[in-house]
Amino acid sequence: METYKVIIIGGGAAGLFLANILTEYGEKDLLVLERGERVGKKLSATGNGQGNITNLRVAERGGYFSSDPQAEARLGALLSVYGAEEFREFWAKRGVLLSFDERGRAYPAGRQASALTDALRFYAEQNGAELRTGARVYAIRKTQNGFVAEYEKDGEKRACQAEKLVLCTGGKAAKNFGTDGTAYALAQSFGHTVTPLYPSLVQLKTETAPIKTLKGIRVVNGGLTAHAPSGEYTVRGDIIFTDYGVSGDAVFRVSAFITPEVESGQVTLSIDFLPEVGEQAIFTALQKKRAAYPALSDSELLLGVVNNQIGRAVMKRAAGDMQKAAGLVKAFPLRVMGHLGFDYAQVTKGGIPLRETTENFESKRVKGLYFAGETLDADGQCGGFNLHFAYASARAVAESITRGQV
Ligand SMILES: Cc1cc2nc3c(=O)[nH]c(=O)nc-3n(C[C@H](O)[C@H](O)[C@H](O)COP(=O)(O)OP(=O)(O)OC[C@H]3O[C@@H](n4cnc5c(N)ncnc54)[C@H](O)[C@@H]3O)c2cc1C
Question: Which distant-in-sequence residues (6+ apart) come within 8 Å of 164 by Cβ?
């Protein structure tokens, strides 16, 4: 049977980072098994194809979520060591320059996510790692000396073994990239549990009657607040009206706080169409317009203040009451009915509980078994946080695997 020091299951972001870091440390005896026909398919599609790889704010409080109450301190410690600056150096070694935007988001300077995948693939292969694609792992087992991974390739069943095994199999979101959630069973076969799973960074379904004339309209850099039983969450960004509810980066961002609660029916959104302008100023503008144009119909009063279609929808909801209309421009309420689910989500919330792993994400149940990336119960905000976690967790795993050799 083919034997390696390390087998990495999953050639996505975390698997490629890990193969890179291990080879950088001089560990050449490693195999990556990826079920897809190529590695890094999802990574190449990230950030609308531009690859939002990290964020200057990754080490700030509140960037990451987990069902584990201890997680914040633990992730904080991890990210204070493997933060955005350290990551920038990682990329520089691979010939990739990062550029940062005004929100702290980092992209490869050429704005091509596929360049990130190529850089990781070239580096890992050049330094001795083997990346085997079209290889779906369906079982793993412990042996006296390590682990056996059983996989299917080209219609044949095969097996290989290693001292250490790392699950970098991702979560359940966006199954068209090879992540359908079935890989959690590999961890469960070793007695690990999986926390409840929810989609995150996902479009939200809302009541549609108040917005049915707004389909396709984008509110640029609006304010969005979610009111949920657990609290109130406000973000800024684009909001796009759709036939099922709302999309856009503000919606994705706010979804990270509320998807576990949306099924309760107790979550509402309120949209601020004009975050820079106060309610009183809007009311005054409406009064002036009413005085200047007595013949103007109520539905047109917000013309020139907000998008015409939005103005009409607001005035209809306010039933012509100008004070109420000014309030609705600042807080247009929409009841949340659900989300579009895992197939449309970018990230999975939940996974292998952090308390079942050591600081370096080694299994506390089975020595030599590790986890990195989205398969763990840690998910990040929108803006480069999730790819950064794939990196930081892979770095922690690599430190443990190579301890003593670095
Ligand atoms: C459209 C989209 C855009 C995104 N944009 C961003 C962004 O701009 N910035 C950001 O930070 N995050 C972004 N994300 C999230 C980010 O891509 C993920 O959080 C990250 O890729 C997780 O890395 P991972 O290695 O844990 O999992 P993945 O990258 O999902 O990799 C897991 C790999 O394991 C393989 N696999 C699964 N099961 C098996 C098996 N049984 N055998 C062999 N292989 C298996 C899969 O095929 C897959 O290649 C985006 C996600 C999507 C879907």
Answer: 5, 6, 7, 146, 147, 368, 369, 370, 401
Average pLDDT over residues 220-236: 97
Domains of the chain are: 2-198+349-401 (3.50.50.60), 204-339 (no CATH)
Which residue is closest in CA terms to ligand 1's atom 49? 12
Q: Is 137 in the pocket of ligand 1 (CB under 6 A)?
A: yes
DSSP state of 363: B
Q: How far apart are CA 53 and CA 106, in angstroms?
A: 6
Pairwise CA distance, residues 115 & 99, whole Å: 14
Q: Is 384 in the pocket of ligand 1 (CB under 6 A)?
A: yes
**Among 201, 336, 333, 220, which Cα is nearest to 275's?**
220
Exposure string over 195-212, b if 16+ CB within 10 A, otherwise e: bebbbbbbbbbbebebbe
* Residue of the CA atom closest to atom 10 of ligand 1: 384
Question: What digits encode the pLDDT tens for the residues 146-183?
Answer: 999 999 999 999 999 999 999 999 999 999 999 999 99
pLDDT of residue 403: 83
Nearest CA to ligand 1 atom 5: 46
pLDDT digits over 6-19, tens only?
999 999 999 999 99
* Structure confidence at residue 115 as a pLDDT band (50, 70, 90): very high
Does the C-beta of 13 come closer than 6 Å to ligand 1?
yes
Report the 10 Å Cβ neighbour count for 62.
9
**380 CA: nearest ligand 1 atom:** 11
Residue 260: what pLDDT?
96
> Is residue 57 classed as helix, strand or coil in its secondary structure?
coil
Residue-wise DSSP of 274-325: -TTS-HHHHHHHHHHHHHH-TTS-GGGTTBTTB-HHHHHHHHHHHTT-HHHH
Does residue 168 line the site of ligand 1, with CB under 6 A?
A: yes
Note whether 11 and 39 are within 8 A (CB). yes
To the nearest whole number, what is the mean pLDDT of the chain? 96
Whether pTM > 0.85 for this model: the answer is: yes
